Sequence to fold (293 residues):
Amino acid sequence: MNVPGKPLLGGIEAGGTKFVLVVGHSPTEIVAKHSIPTRSPATTLAQAAEWLAQHGAIAALGIASFGPVELDPRAPRWGYITNTPKPGWADCDIAGYFARRLAVPVGFDTDVNGAALAEYAYGAGLGAGSLAYVTVGTGIGGGLVIDGKAVHGAAHPEVGHFYPRRLSVDAEFHGICPHHGDCLEGLASGPAIHARWGASLSDLPADHAAHGIIAGYLAQLCHSLFAMLAVEKVVLGGGVMNTPGLLEKVQFATLALDAGYLPGADKHLLSRPGLGDRSGAVGALLLARSALD
Fold:
């Protein structure tokens, strides 16, 4: 429902499994929400556009998308999903499709940058100057926000593809990443856990060695973020992080890795997403508002 004097914003959290669609008058005033399965680009984008159109004319759209994506606004392929392994989605002009179909300005970023912006503005990052958001699920990805802005460089951060120090108790597993083998995603994502233990982490017994191994790898990422980027908070989301006790194990292992060295370590905090499963959708509406502004 439109409110006089308040523009309606649209948001899309574009995931590899599902698209979450929202409309609202601000990132915190969501008036409708819907999800659709991620099928082919032609089917999925058309369904998303039709749902958005049912709610009246939107003034701007924000898209927080799975990647890799092109974020350089000067690049001819800005707004594209680029070399994703998801069948059919490589070289998909997702931002351009909606800009043409809906005739509105489009804000575009990665799904994890969108979630990071949302957590910084309204969630676990309230009061912090910097925040990293990491999702641990089917893959591992991360976004970084400093002073309210998502960090972009030659591309976007790919924190899931750094190489952690291998743990001796896990030395025989080669990793599942098709590009890097035993990068963090290849070792600690949901599919990597299932590949070597035959179950999700939450389904394994609480005393199973897998819990310490996965916590140890994720702690290396958290320590690296604190040490290299001096972020104040690392927010850990995604399905794997729903495992009971895992966040606490990662926190303990991160402190052990630091060994009391880093200055300001009392400000280096780990937390769950303050917005729960709404981080990506709220982030998409933040991108829409930025595009409108």
